[in-house]
Structures are given as C-alpha cells and as structure tokens.
Amino acid sequence: MTDNHFTGFSLIELLVSILLFSIVMLGLVEFQTVLTSTIWQAKKRHTAQTMAFEILDRYPDTQVINLPAQWNFKIMTTRYHQCQIVKVIIWIPSAEEISQQRWFCRL
Known about the structure:
By secondary structure, the chain is α+β, with helices and mostly antiparallel strands. The chain has one domain. It has one helix and three strands; from the N terminus they run αβββ. The chain has one helix at residues 11-58, and strands spanning 72-80, 83-92, 96-105. A three-stranded antiparallel beta sheet has the order 1-2-3. It is rod-shaped, with a radius of gyration of 29 Å. This is Prepilin-type N-terminal cleavage/methylation domain-containing protein. The chain crosses the membrane at residues 6-29.
C-alpha cells in the first residue's frame, strides 16, 4: 500500500482564495476613498459655518474677512420694524452654499 497523504493547498484553492482576498481589499479601498472624501466635505462645511458666524460677529465691519481660496460670500440685509435681519451666504468650491442669519435690534 502506498501512503498518498499530501498536506497543503491545491493551485485552484490558492487562486480562489487570492481572488476573494483581492475583491475584499478592493471593496475596503473604495470604502476608505469614499470615507475620506466625505470627511473632507464635512470639514469644509464646518469651516464655512464657522466663517459665517465670524462674519456675523464682526458685522458691520466685514472688510477684513479672510476666506480660503475660491470661497465667496455675500451679505444680505432685510429691515423689519426696529430690527434688521443679516444673512451671510458662503459658497465653497464643491458648489455648496452655507448660510447663517442673525437679528440685530435697537432697543
């Protein structure tokens, strides 16, 4: 009698396991890419919100506002009896619009 007990993996098993590992790794890389992009977008929105509040805090002296490159802002005012509604709109490069408003009243 011959003893044919070989241990290890066959070539087919090895190729299938490498294929499955590759598919899982590509999925994880894609997930990491989307996650990183989402985090950067959230960071930009947060920075824009902070800048909008800073502009409102400095109102009416808004001549010295330093926004990041390619960001624009606009200030709109609306009178309402003894008060004034000041709205700040900031446009960020990802074509998003962030706005904040505040009431200023004379007592």
